[in-house]
Amino acid sequence: MPSPKPFYRFILALTLLLVSIAGILIAGYISLARTLPPPDELIDRANTFKTTIIYDREGNVIYEVFPPNAGKRTLVPLADISPYLINATLAVEDPNFYRHPGVDPVGVARAVYYILRQNETRPGGSSIVQQLVKLTFLSSERTLSRKIKEAVLAIEITRRYPKDTILEIYLNHIFYGNLAYGAEAAAQTYFGKSASDLTLAEASLLAGIPQRPGDYDPYTHWNAVRSRQADVLRLMVEHGSITPEEATRAWLAFADVSADEVLAPRHADFRYPHFVLMVRQELEATYGPEVVTRGGLRVTTTLDPRLQAAAEEAVRQGIQDLARRHARASDAALVAMDPQTGEVLALVGSADYNNAAISGQVNMATTPRQTGSVIKPLDYLATFEMKEDYWTPATLILDEPVSFPNRPGQPPYKPRNYDGRFHGVVSVRSALANSYNIPAVKALAHAGVPAWMELAQRLGISTLSGQDYGLSLALGSGEVSLLEMTQVYAALANGGQRLEPHLILRVETQDGDLLADASQPYKIQVLDPAHAFLITSILSDKQARKPAFGRASRWLELPQRPVAAKTGTTNDIRDAWTLGYTPQLVAGVWVGNADNTPMRGVSGVSAAGPIWHHFMEAAHEGWPVQTFPRPAHVVEMEICEDTGLPPTEDCAHRRMEFFKADQPPRRHQPW
Predict the structure, then answer these.
(1) What is the three-class DSSP state of 406?
(2) What is the pTM (predicted TM-score) of this model?
């Protein structure tokens, strides 16, 4: 009998090989499936959580990310959830949910495609079933073996549960931020209504939150949430659940309105709400919301309960005093840091978090505002850093009417001093200590805006890039947050070393395994220590600032303790600032109104100064007195006040001044 042809032998061998491979895969699948938790436990496990606990630096519990009462959650059947929210969730999370067996190859391929395009707002590669598995069955490790286990469990769950049941469990347990677990709690939290009554505009807003609840918190990141909503609506159109016209109407429903006009008022029944929410947002960005809400983390923060209590009391008393003065100032924020470590020891984001009338939910510690004169140390630092034509604290400036060319078609820029007067020839020390405006603008004009911007970025200011700023930057026309300004002043207090502000000291698992440790903060030398000291010397000079501040200077001083401080007031008195430091502590205070309405009859020193003073006085109680260390390359020499140079025999007015050793006083005409 003739032998089979080679082609048939090849087909037979290939078939046997494929059958063997399939048998091995099936056997492996069955073996792996037997080692995993039973899929039938899905509903029970969905209700099981390990509480993440947040502590202050002394070990006191200040917040539980998932409270014992399971947060805000109301289980509802799928029929009681708005079809808009169901369709929006499917469009953004798993458009093939009803067609795949638990794992969606198309979704994985689509996720890879969007990653290659570097598109931040993309559908995820994990199906809804896989996400549910991750939330209820498996650890947070990101390994290939865990992804394989996740896929196997997802397929098994899909085989044993109807898709509607899986979707119902998912929508009842997914985290929407602000302690809202599930669609019903989210609808009540953000819109004060049932999930069944959500409109397309509301549903598309909610559906975008679970991917990154911290970054997409509607109360604090309204613009980001609106951008995310646009992507959700686009995906709904792509997948045929709504028409382009419906998407447009939904988008326009929240156009030209603020978050306060759309969202239900938020109420916090825990202490230190802004601080805690910032910690939680950082944890979610690092570990993912599912680990934070269910993983049982133990988080030790930088918060000092004594200093936090002093900060809250200073803000409360300060706002009450301003109300008695009819200053029309409703809000204040305070940030205190250890300049040696960058640890945020106290943070008050608003005068009353639960007061919707003042937009208390808005964290004014992190909201950029115009800085006014608290930015002026950068004007002079930029001139100190110049290789040629550098300035020193003794450099003389002519404080007189001046006009600077402006952009084409605009009138010349003519800065004016706060007191409306001109002060003739003044030194840099006098100009900065008294916060004269014209010398500050001349300093920026001399150093140049590009050099100033580079210095600001080096010091940690991140909100001033990408805009065409002019000389008004010298007087604080740019917007910077209180937290970043406090970081800038911390670098001055710390000899020119920049440390990133941080709120978390240590993160551990429930079993005590260390995940993160900030005990050795990263320091960057961003200023010459001599230049930092020269600015500190000016800001701590009580005598130098008396001409402008008079008795009000008392708010910038501490009894028997060296302290450097600066105030700032913006145009129309919309923002009042005081920032200052000792070697042990730096604190910043902002006073104003979250809606940017102007105050009346106050300034930085009279509005923010008392809050800063009372806090710093209470904070330093019992602490040893420390002086600002003088770098070795800073020299002190006698100068003549009239020339800024070493005195001659006929010099009538002399004083001592500090200089960087290689930047001695120079002969020049007043600038």
Answers:
(1) coil
(2) 0.75
